[in-house]
Amino acid sequence: MNEEAYLDLVMDALHQKIKEINTKIAGNEKDIESMHDYFWENYTEFDEYGYEIYDNSNALKSRMKEQDDYAKMRIRYEKMLDAPYFGRVDFCYEGEDEPETYYIGIANLAKKRAENPYVFDWRAPVSGLFYDYDKGAAQFTAPSGVLTGEITKKKQYKIRYGKIIYILENDMNIDDEILQQTLSEHADASLKSIVTTIQKEQNSIIRDTTHRILAVQGCAGSGKTSVALHRIAYLLYHNRKNLSAAQVLILSPNSIFADYISRILPELGEENICEMTLDDFAYRELRSYGEAEDRYDEIEKRLHMDSMGDFLTEEADAKQTKEYVEELNAFALSLEWELMNFKDFHYKKMEMKESEISDLFYEKFADVPILSRMEKIGEYLIDAEETLRNKNMEDDQKQEIFDRLNRMYETRNILKLYLRFLSESNRDGFCIRNGMIRYEDVYPLLYLKYTLLEAPKRREVKHLVIDEMQDYSYLQYVLLSRIFHCPMTILGDKVQTMAENRQDVLTFLPKIFGKEVHRVYLNKSYRSTSEITEFASRLLQEENVQTVERHGELPQTISCYSTEEMYETLAEDIKGREDAETIAVLCLDAADAKKTAEQLQAKLPEDIPVTLLTKDSMKFGRGISVMPFYLAKGLEFDAVFIPETEKYVTSLHKQALYIDATRALHFLRLYEVQI
Ligand SMILES: Nc1ncnc2c1ncn2[C@@H]1O[C@H](COP(=O)(O)OP(=O)(O)OP(=O)(O)O)[C@@H](O)[C@H]1O
């Protein structure tokens, strides 16, 4: 069958599918309506135990869920009307004479359930052939085992509005015209699906189901975030019974980033996944001790430190290390003896000698964290008493027992204990600044809490994604390993650190998570033009980055004689980029971003709005966004402008400049004010 005829066949099948779904949705809608009517007409006569109400609401729920599934299916098929497939492989199985043809698209499309699909989902086992091999010998893993053979043909399609724009048949991998064309498109306000051009090295990460903990070190723009999200879509597709979107959690740097990545999974036909920042989690856990500074407060402080500050940052950094964790462990151990003040226990007819309590404390319950241990002894006592009296104890009596036992601790206040640790270890004995817990003490405090009390286990999370892995410390990974016991995808770039000194987390991750950490490297950058990538690499003397050959304007640094002239020039340059969907003006800190946004808005016409993004912003959209560098991490823009580069002098500033420069897809311009 020729290509046009096959496309017609698939389009007909799609229209037919959509028609069938519409009929099902309409039928279901009627059923749901009549179920509602039946409920309201009869609920007064339902049985008194609520069984009928329960049955009714369950039936209604399952219909609504079905309706929801149909609606999602319809969206997927409607999307396929535009481009029903993007690839094809003809694969001749070993021992066969004729090849089988497989078309690959964003979802499966078959006439009936058991029939051979017209189009295979990109995540289907056979679709791996498309991403992993050129023409020639190939294999893929099917549920029945490894199947070998030969790819006799491989094609890529550009189909728009259901019409073939072009077909490419080639021997090369997908690093070709279609990739080039995709990369030269404009950036959107959300991360895009890359299913049509996933590269071999990316595919092996996406389809890796053998390693529990996958850690990916990839250069800027190498597709780490994209790969992580496609991997989730892949795992959800292959493991529907054991993994749902609600059980996947992504640790993201901030809400803007969360918004930026939020549309990709729905685009791939999956539900969106939960997202949180580690700081938010820590604040919730430490809420009873007061407010705490966040990561951005800390960066802002460091951006403005002079040479005197080096000592302070070193001290703060030292509090996030393995050595500090060991000191905290030693302190926690010393509390076993120092914190306790055992006495004989009496309550009503219950009694226990001091020596018995201390035996239980140091022997029977020695494995329980120290501050939870008296509660365990309480439960033990209560259990014995209830058995003896053959009667359950009242809650208030139980509480009284716990309270009395807990009074045998000198204190149970973690903040007080942490302060004691600081002064005993000859450190500055405060951890509060301007009424808030200092950022450098937030995670040590949380660590102490989880050492002295049971750490909460997030068992509902069955897969954790940690993006920007370089921004988490040794101590934070130890905490994460205590909270989450699930498979993980950890991604980042040691070069894009937001600290003065680079840390390579891959060196210590196996010490925390064990040998199960599998490391993978991505060295090719897809985001920026070769000129931008080379310019950015020179900023930090990075030599390992390969680029996809795609060219654009050379980044320039414009020298101005005054700040006023700089803003004028910047505003004019921005006006000249009306082709860009997203423009970022990236500044060193929050105050500069605010000032720049105001200056630009004053110089630009009202119909060109300028949006200032702060650490509390929740969304990122098209148009002109102004923000400090640290909020641009993970994002990308058609054009990036960096004003006042003369301010970037320290090693942290240089890191900031690198992060800024690597955000640009097509255009990058810098401005310096000559002093
Ligand atoms: N195989 C691919 N095909 C098409 N585009 C790709 C591919 N891989 C990556 N890209 C594009 O490259 C850009 C960078 O991807 P992504 O943001 O996932 O990279 P990253 O490694 O997380 O970047 P960074 O660390 O710099 O934030 C995105 O526009 C993405 O769509």
Task: Throw out a few tags for this protein.
AAA family ATPase; 6-stranded parallel sheet; 24 strands; alpha/beta; 675 residues; binds adenosine-5'-triphosphate
Structure explained in plain terms:
Pfam families: UvrD-helicase (PF00580). GO terms for molecular function: 3'-5' DNA helicase activity; ATP binding; DNA binding; hydrolase activity. It comes from Roseburia zhanii. This protein has 675 residues and is α/β, with parallel strands linked by helices. The chain is 44% helix and 18% strand. The protein is built from 23 helices and 24 strands. The strands form 6 sheets. Strands 1, 2, 3, 4, 5 and 6 form a 6-stranded mixed β-sheet that branches. Strands 9-8-14-15-7-16 form a 6-stranded parallel β-sheet, sandwiched between helices. The chain has a 6-stranded parallel β-sheet with strand order 19-24-23-20-22-21, with helices on both faces. Helix 9 (278-286) packs across helix 17, helix 12 packs across helix 17 and helix 21 packs across helix 22. The protein is globular, with a radius of gyration of 30 Å. It starts with a helix and ends with a strand. Bound molecules: adenosine-5'-triphosphate (ATP). The site of adenosine-5'-triphosphate has 24 residues, from helix 4 and helix 6.
